[in-house]
Amino acid sequence: MNMNKTVVSTSSLCKTYQIGDVNIEALKDINFKVEKGEFVAISGPSGAGKTTLLNIIGAIDKPTTGKIIVFKQDLTIENEDSLADFRCNNVGFVFQSYNLVSTLTVAENIAFPMEWARKPDDHIKNRVRELLKTVNLEHRTEHFPSQLSGGEQQRVAFARALANDPPLLLVDEPTGNLDTKTGLKIAQLLQKSKDANKTIIVATHDERIIQIADKKLYLEDGKLVNLDE
Amino acid sequence: MSETAFPINDLLRRKLQTGLTIGSLTLCVALTVYLLLFGENIGFKISQVAEGKLTAGFSMVFSQFILFIGLLIVVTGAVIVSFMVFVMMSQRAKDIGLMRASGCPNDLIFGYFMTELLIVTFASCFLGVIFGTLANYASIRLFNSLGFQILQKPINFWLVLFVFVLFFVLTIIFGVKPILDVTKIEPAKAISPTYHFGLSKEPGFKVISKSSFTFKIALRSLFRRKSATIRIILCLATVFTLITVAIAGGIIADQTTKSWVEKAVGRDIILIAHQDMCNQYKSLLSRFHEAGESSQFNYTEEEYLVSENLLNKLNAMSDIHIDVRLVIEAHVKEIPGVIIDPETATTSSVGDKREGESLIVGVEPENVLGEWFIEGEFLETNREREVMIGDSLAQKMFSKPLNQSILFRGINFDVAGVCLDPINNGNVTYTSLKVLQDAIDVSKPNIVMVRVDSANRAEILNQIEKTVEDVKLDSDFMVFELNEVLDANLSFLGHLWSIIMFLPLFSLIAASLCLIGYVVLAIAEQRRELGVLRALGIKPKTVTKIVSEQSFIILLSSFGAGVPIGIILTLLILVPEPIITSYTVLEIAGWLLIGLLVMFVSSLYPTIKFARKPILEIMNQP
Question: What is the pTM assigned to this prediction?
Fold first, then answer.
């Protein structure tokens, strides 16, 4: 396998949470690689560790032991400011509960990751317009998140994740809180991103999404199983 | 769960918030107790501390200041109490919602949180009276060590109890409403992660669309939590008014009153008189800062009078300005006056026939070196039957001095003006030298005051000393520089004003705790969103920026509202004819900015602590 194409690589990755006197092992000895342009679906029961794994790949969390290398950067040794830059420039994160900034409008929510990345104003304006068109929300530009439906909020979250055109897209249960019809729209958005040759890792139960994945992983009790093998 | 176990555990669980509430309430109570106890000795009746010291006019300025600051401190205390109790209850809204959702009856919930409120209130009031009383003891010891003789009166138990009850009742009144409001919220709404008590859900409108995202988030968050924002701005504006009155007012009043004294006595004035007369004059001037008994002194004794020989020699000298005076003490009597009502043209009598002792100073109006703060007019050479009296004499013996007359040595004089003068503590009457000499049949003055108008002061001073030395052969005359007494008077004023400057320090600390409380509230409300922003790539320092911008906007708004009110109160109500130099403005601005900076820096503590937390801890905490 060509290492130059490897986007994510983990070795003996473990994550343990301490709750009171009890240690809970969320991830146990995780070893896997994701190649550039690959679409990976991670499924598994609730509490299996899917979100924890995505958080570690997205540099939001750190493993207790083991190594995680994303875009040749060892995320276990970077300081907080470098990790912030890493997240801003390399990763687009779509959270399960949308997590839009309630004080910003739809357009502003999509624009602000570009502002952190110091993109020029003209570029930000054009990109916001382009993304709003992609997610079919041109008519909602000046609305606040509280004025949108769940599906619309999820689409804004998608647009925000794509704002800086990140090479890696991490998506956590994108259809979990949505009805079937809206879920389909999200699956279509993921398909579009796959077609744009983005590396995508999705934690999901949704069969429609699992079906379009190149690689299917299954997490149970913190252990990873490759369903393709 | 017992009725007391839950409230105690809940208070212990929220250590920072409980500490902030108890801390700020304790400071408010302590400040009020301190002010009232200390005021008994030196505050509200400042003329008592300066009994026989400050003149009536100066006492009035001090008393007005202390009374005004006292009122502001009580108002500030009430506003702070109201805000902190609101913050305390708003952070319990979710717990109350959860308890209601799980079937806990409303009266039991009310009981739990009322018990919490009572515990916090009792602890704060109790600690407040202890700290206030200790601060009073410490201040009196400090001032006594500085040379002021302030008696330590026994603690006025009823006064302390009054403050305890006042703040206890205020806190309960302010606290019950938020508890009742919170218990009325639907459980589903209360436990919703997007609901925060006291916040309107919708951002409402887009404030300033052309600005950075951090500023937009900060400003819109402030507008969204408008109930809490208005309360904190009101609270801090009151504190800034108080601080401005104390600092700006204190500095302006300090400089103004010092200027009154300095001009009345005169800077770099040389006194030439008989040694005993010099000591007596010094003692008369020192009564402003040292209580002293009047002793019998024969001002007109032959050897105290300035000889013509000395006067001629002094007059022959160039580059000096001479002010000759005849000082005596006399029995004076108030003469009632007549006031004509301009509308009805009817007349009415004012005043009585009060009698007393006054220092009488005969001066040549065209040569006087002093410059007084006068209500009315100064003497004029062609109006010989007029006098200018000191403020203490005016207050003690006259009803409407400018419409009345004064009688001494059988002569009736109209009162032309009332002046602020430290000599003999304001018990003074200035009249024409010639008229006084005729009235008491003394042809010579008993003191000569000299101002050197030359750049070469030392040389001229030597010449004066030599001249006095020459005539000393037949009398014990001496040359004395009045600056020493003047500086002692100014230093006394400075110390008194420093007491006032000291008072708002407690309010500043209490207000800082309030601002920290608000920041904690803001962080709790924005916690998840700030966590998401971190997850999307903003750095911890940008999170600090978003939260600190909110504190800064609040501080600037409060500053903008409180400082002008404080300055207007100071200039229009508290200090008549204030003296303001560019240095005064800089000094005031400097102190106020330091106050602003202290509050801003203290508000950064919870922000920085929060920004350093791991992202998941921020996002996952309920």
Answer: 0.72
